Predict the structure.
Amino acid sequence: MKIGVYDPYLDDLGGGEKYMMTLASCLAKRHTVSVFWNNKKDIEDIQERFAIDFSDINVVKNIFTAKTNFFKRAAALAKYDRVIYLSDGSLPFVIKKNLFVHIQQPLEQINTLFLKDKWKLRNVLAFFCNSEYTKSFIEKKIGKRVFILYPPIILSPKNIKKENSILHVGRFRTKNIEIDDYKKQFFMVEVFKEMIDRGLKNWHFSLAVSLKDDDKEAFAKIQELAKNYPIKFFINKTNQELWDLYSKAKIYWHASGYGENLEKFPENAEHFGISTVEAMGAGAVPVVINAGGQKEIVTRDSGLVWNTKEELVKKTLQLIKDEALLLNMSKNAVKRANFFAGNKFCKEVEQLIL
């Protein structure tokens, strides 16, 4: 079977890119798979960052740019048995019913009202998303069934002694560098500083980020904010280097969506939370915001959720002070992470797409 895969954000190194390129790698074991992209450096970065095997994947000219006209694109897509498209709110026009659409987050800009959009919807074989959270918004928007395909999780914990470390892993991407940030890294740094000021000793906060050149100036502000505190920064680390950090950490923080109007802007919460699952797989106990996909990941016995800054501090200190609770939850976190891990993703991709 001939399969084409397109992700408009391949230069972003985010969870969606890991999702789509792992999907391509899974299908390439048995089928001819082509990824539409022009910049080979972006592909190399994805391979290094996420340890994805591209040996069976063809990287071909990106026909989704403005340089390829409407008719040529439609004709090219008709040559594929399956086209898998990560939507940014748009849908491609195809003349053959061969389209699968992946939606990574709640998207208000998907339009289903106009005749041209209804025509596009007719040729979609299936919509699929990454969580119940995303599904709940998208089904209401498009009025069609949406399948859940949880993201690919490959657990690679290392036999490393745990440290008194609280960890967060995520992209550094600012929305407004003066007042807010997408992943709430500024917020977490401030919370940890307050905990130190209130007397917490012998613990450090590790912040691992993927950072693009455009955000370096903004990132310097968070580094300045952390000066003279036990806060460590890890920038653009490889997959294996991240597993060192996961394996050393005792606690994992996630705060995306804090202080946001999630009724109006649901996309500001974490849509699923791959890094949370990975941290749990290495035995780090999650203390994460009670919002978005985080609520689907963490169970009562495998981690703690919070709604306010005060709850985040209180529940983190609860784990720090109670070693037995921390150890028990660490064991359960590993078990819970394994629910999402292994070959499950590849098997479900095959069942859905084929």
